[in-house]
Amino acid sequence: MATIRDVAKLAGVSTTTVSHVLNKTRFVSAEGKAKVEDAVMQLNYVPNTVARSLKGGSSRVLGMLVTDSNNPFYADLIQWVDQVAYRHGYNLILCNTQGNIERAKDYMSMLSQRRVDGMLMMSSDARQLPVSSYGTMPMVMMDSGPDRAGYDRILDDSEQGGYMATKYLLQAGHRCIGLLAGPLEKSNSQNRIAGYRRAMAEAYVEVDESWIQSGEFTYEGGVTAMTELLKQQKKVTSIFASNDLMAMGAIRVAGEHGLIVPKDLSVIGYDDIPGAKYFNPPLTTMRQPLELMAEQAIAMLLARMETPESEGQRTLLTPTLITRDSVAVNLA
């Protein structure tokens, strides 16, 4: 494996000059830079980022923890984060905790040992670890996290999103509105429930508690919650599902019970995953601004890396209503 000394020897320059070219830390003449770059290509030289970070420099690597990279929402967001990080000259190490606290703990330790420059966290599993587990690594929480110095948060405004989704159904003439909530221990689930309740209260519609059923943020979670909802005595004419996967699972169950969407049952989802517009019927949903979320998360993390002791910042991003074909006006 080639070393920096091999590059310097082939280019006919000092190792210091090679270092300045690679790290862009000082001006090097165009001729000297070209020699170094040619030598790097000929030798297929790869800088040792860990060794560089041990000397107090930057590894140019960011870590990202997510709960489930197979979820289309996370997969889409990861692509945006990777693009933005790359544009800023950083590589991304992705860690999928898969709902396992021990995996989250191991990944936190690994990222610290790899001396990544900072970390983006979108993992409820990692947030269950003691704050002391995070160490001093610059970090941005991309859904929720502790309010303290050194931990910035960029959040979907789930309460407002739940309010907007429910209000849209109310404006379409629906009064019996079911809510398929995510896991009740998760803050975004509780926030969407709060938005649902606010819209219903504002319209002077009493909520039947049996209309609120919860499940995982998955197809199966939607099936489970919808199955329970259909068992209730007081029937609904529309449903707000807390994510698109749940909405799709619910529509399948509705079809098995002879209900046609949106003729018999209107459905609105949340996230606007790539498959939402291709579903049958195309799904009305709340779109999270993933590109903006990625841009602002990376910007916050880079700022945190520059000023690690500053107060934690909190940014809320408002979702957008995307109307398609899964909601109909209720004429009853």
TrEMBL record:
Residues 2-56 form the HTH lacI-type domain. SMART domains: HTH_LACI. SUPFAM superfamilies: lambda repressor-like DNA-binding domains (SSF47413), Periplasmic binding protein-like I (SSF53822). Keywords: DNA-binding, Repressor, Transcription, Transcription regulation. It comes from the Bacteria. GO terms for molecular function: DNA-binding transcription factor activity; transcription cis-regulatory region binding. Gene3D superfamilies: 3.40.50.2300, lambda repressor-like DNA-binding domains. This is LacI family DNA-binding transcriptional regulator. It comes from Shewanella hanedai (Alteromonas hanedai). The lineage of its organism: Bacteria, Pseudomonadati, Pseudomonadota, Gammaproteobacteria, Alteromonadales.
